[in-house]
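Collaborator request, handled under Task 6.
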Amino acid sequence: MVLFIYLLLVIAFIVVGTAKFKLHPFLVLLLAALVMGGVGGLDGNAILTKLTEGFGGTLKSIGIVIACGTIIGVFLERSGGARAIAGALLKVVGESKAPMAMSLTGVIVSVPVFCDSGFVILSTLIRALSRKTGMSLAVLAVALATGLYATHVFVPPTPGPLAAAATLGADIGLIVLYGLLVSIPTAGVGLVWALWYAKRFAIVPKRDTAENPPDTGRTPGTAFALAPLLVPVVLIALKSVADSPAAPFGEGWLSASIKFLGHPVMALMIGVFFAFGLPGRERSPLRFEWVTEGLRQAGVIILITGAGGAFGNVLRAIGIGDALGPLVAEWNLGILLPFVVAALLKSAQGSSTVAIITTAALVAPLLPDLGLTSATSKALAVLAIGAGSMTVSHVNDSYFWVVSQFSEMDTATALRCHTLATLWQGMTGILVIALLNSILG
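Structure tokens returned to the collaborator:
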């Protein structure tokens, strides 16, 4: 119980430090690891050893993947590829079903692109659609925002799920497959909320929002825009199939090739080279500035992810699993515990990525006591953390302000339209995940 009390105090420190005092999560997580190591009885050398081992062990499996995924996102943003995908979907479903097109666009675009960046990129499009169709901007904004949010927390190579997979030792291919499955009803709930509730708020765009034009002389075709997204996902999914006990591809060169190309590092690197084919003014196929921008964005995420891994490794070293295991087993929460912890952290401090990384470090030692030891259960545990990390987006979340400001919602309207939508999304996500766990886990 003493360790449990210390852990609660440290979690409170993480929340207050990041939310109230605006301390960087990287430093807060490292300080939390040092404190827990000290109160857990480790000497100074042992604390530093476990901290550095956890940091390096997490990054060796996930650092390159996060960097490549972020580069792909920058290329889609700067080349106009995200808008090309949105335009193609609008042609298929028609302007009368623009909210559905925006939701589907969000689901696709947010696989490699951060949800807030994706919303900014597509904000001009939803404003133009609002003026042209007469639909309330609130409807289109909520449909887009919830579509973006769904894959942002569920489907790699988004950094949060990748980091949680590394911490929990979950198979990324399974997370991709189940994450796509869970994201469909989760985005669907957001779309329903936009059509049923957000339409009550008549918002007509009154001004043009400043937006940096893409550095491109031409817009990429839909197939070229989708290739950097779909090729890595397909390769990773095929590897998971090849790794299954049924061995559908046999044991020869074909299976070995699929497993090599489907490794997340190789799959995302291949995606990067597909992204190089997206058009731009600069003639160099390497697009040095775009790659540099992707690496700059990835650096912060990689460091926070490593700090989360360090925190988790220290928790394991002090035996937090043995201390809390019996208590957790008595609660019998199972897959619900990761969701509840992530939801509390998300609602308290605002960042979905920080909530995912911190929760993964906290629950990793408890997986056996929660009955989450199979490959499927571990993948679903990652998704349960993701569902919690979207519950809820409110005033302490930067994404809340991006959605509200770029869709001309006042704070009260954004709380009713966007925040409540994320609540229903999180609840829907965990219900679907719990059902999958009861069937497959």
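The cover message to the collaborator said: "Residues 208-216 have pLDDT under 50 and may be disordered. Residues 2-440 form one domain. Please let us know whether this matches your experimental observations."
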